[in-house]
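Shift notes (night). Ran CocE/NonD family hydrolase while the centrifuge was going.
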Amino acid sequence: MSEIRHFDAGGQTIRIRKNLSVPMRDGVTLAADAYEADVDKPRPALVALSPYGKELQALALTTPPQRRPSPLWDGCIEAGDIARIVSEDYVHVIGDLRGSGDSEGEHIGNYNAGGVSLGQDAYDFIEWVAEQPWCDGNVGMVGISYFGSMQVLAAAERPPHLKAIFVSGGHYDFYETTYHGGIMWFMPRAAREGRGGDSGWAFTDGVKSRMIEEFSPEELKVKVEERLADPDIQAWPNLVHALNYPKNHEAWFDIVMNQFDGEWYEERNPNELAHNIDIPVWLQLDQGRGWTLDSTIEVFDRVKGPKKLTIGAYPPMQSRPFIEEHDKMFAWYDYWLKGIDNGIMDEPQVDVFVEGSRETITADQWPPKEIDHRELYLRPRHKLSTEPETMGVEYAAPDGFYQAPLTVTDEVQILSWSTPVFEEATEMIGTGAAHIFAEIDQPDTNFILRLWDYAPNGSRQLITTGYLKASHRELDEERTTHGNPYHPHTRAVPVEPGVVEEYVIRLYPFAASFQPGHKLTVELSNAEPLVDDHNSLLPPDAFHLPVGRPVAHKIYRDAEHPSRLVLPFTRG
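Came back to this:
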């Protein structure tokens, strides 16, 4: 039963319409709460949709925002600043997706792939909100991460009353949500199941596995045994458990079982649907979340209506409850939902914060400046140079490291190479690549690269990262360009031990200016440090699946094997 409550927020009385029933076209009813000023009048509405539970989102009224590494940071409180939204004279409508919270229905697979389209539900939800007497018929959306992805899914369905969206921190390529360069990433499991500082999904009857529905028990048993044969899986207890007991972790089971990109991920990928969007779109993301920045830029390039792109500064994780970027959001919605001519469309389409110089660059395209991809070569004595090595391998012997699996060691081996200190400010903005000539003694390994800006006092700032599972080294030659490699990740090709291979690793988009006296350092490993000054900014589960077997690596960087970085230097 719906009811009306009131809440005092610093002298502002907020009227809360609790447990509204929102009908879907198939007869399922979704539950929602609506927050508005306690004065009767129709207003524009900002809709937030997720499976994290509307009651959790209500904590935005009572819990002060937390930043990492606060132990109170909860990654699932993402629907926005309720009191601020109400004070700006909008109705904030927070809904539970089907099968979650107080809503009816069931959820099948990741993002309901295989079940009722979440975009379809969002369409019906938005149109219902627009018809209510407390809404003036103008609807936008709000929220980050899952809430952000829902905005793109909704806009692609083109509900008539959705006039604009403002997406902060969304993710749009569902394969890259969990596999970075083919290497499994654990953080999405935390968001789903409630681990490492996340409350997790609020599904009332779990999430139904598509794999269990699509395959017979005999077929599924064979597929599970094949996946369990992966040494990396064997060495990680949580994954052994998930594969042996899929009913306990059905959504995660499906993702672990699908380690390659393709139809399973793409059928409702927001980035694949973005070309259907012709309403105004503003996309915002902070640096440090490279996999998301990649697909954010892809969506920006594909949408057809008025658009903006904002790339912000570190750290990579916003407050929870989420409160950032609201100034830009209200300027956007005041223009598109309220018709206030505030000059927002007179500003350039793109604004990018540059680490190092701490300047904001504006333009009408990404990258915001013309760039030249230039090489920095790995050289002996851990140096990076603009000049390639002239000596052969017999004189420029390879660097190397041996990594024991984390089942038997806590020590992660890291190789590094550094430039001389920069004599003048040197700016790089865009996507890069690393060409690593390597020989390993196993059929597979991980290549993990991290680029750092080191200050004269020894402090450092992470600039960008790159990941590649060696068996996923295959390139799409048609889509790959200099400094911008593309891996299809549709199959694994085992490495022949003892053979030197060239691995082209994508470096996620970044914007940095190396100041005089600073130096650039690249680190290479096959696992991540268990603790360091960057990881402390992330939730505890934000790491990648380590290699489950011992691997010896030889990194060649001689005249015949020009291991190098290819980086986006700006012109002028």
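The chain has two domains: 3-204+262-347, 371-570. The first helix runs from residue 54 to 57.
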